[in-house]
Inverse folding.
């Protein structure tokens, strides 16, 4: 604990700091609860996307044999170019919001490619979109978790360090000032008792 001055100015500074910490603490606690709720919501969305991606992968298994018997590879059917996102905000945290993917289906020659390749293109694009959405959701959760960690640290700092520290400082300063005032009164009385009385002048 830092050394403090036992003065009225320091008492006021500590009292003001205590009021400030006590005012901010409920806001930090509320933000912590909001972040926890957002993480739960993002995790639920991510689980849903991952479940749909797993189902899409399972459906894609039926095409594997067709790829083996064909000169067409999955990489040739769709060119994946990136993920489209916009910026959003959750409880003061800047996060990416999934908007879609940039993907270009290959131009197919209907006379040289099997009929199933059109459906395969759609399926591969859908699978890429689900994977991309999952990546964005994972990034959202990561960012919100980082903010939750920081907010949790601040809550603990206020609850367990700053507020108790201010209260203890205020207690110590008040005791010191009270002792000083008592000592001053005692010194005053002693000094008054030692002052010689003026002799009365008689005519």
């Amino acid at each position: 604990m830092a050394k403090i001055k036992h003065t009225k100015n320091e008492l006021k500074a500590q009292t003001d700091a205590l009021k400030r910490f006590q005012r901010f603490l409920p806001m930090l606690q509320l933000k912590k609860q909001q972040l926890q709720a957002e993480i739960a919501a993002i995790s639920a969305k991510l689980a849903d996307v991952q479940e749909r991606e797993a189902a899409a992968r399972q459906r894609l298994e039926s095409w594997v044999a067709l790829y083996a018997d064909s000169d067409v590879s999955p990489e040739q059917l769709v060119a994946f170019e990136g993920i489209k996102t916009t910026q959003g905000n959750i409880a003061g945290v800047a996060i990416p919001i999934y908007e879609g993917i940039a993907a270009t289906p290959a131009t197919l020659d209907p006379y040289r490619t099997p009929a199933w390749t059109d459906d395969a293109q759609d399926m591969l694009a859908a699978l890429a979109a689900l994977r991309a959405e999952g990546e964005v959701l994972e990034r959202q959760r990561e960012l919100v978790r980082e903010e939750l960690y920081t907010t949790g640290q601040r809550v603990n700092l206020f609850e367990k360090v700053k507020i108790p520290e201010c209260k203890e400082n205020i207690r110590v300063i008040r005791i010191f000032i009270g002792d000083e005032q008592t000592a001053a009164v005692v010194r005053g009385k002693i000094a008054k008792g030692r002052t010689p009385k003026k002799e009365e002048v008689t005519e």
Remarks:
- The chain has a mean pLDDT of 85.
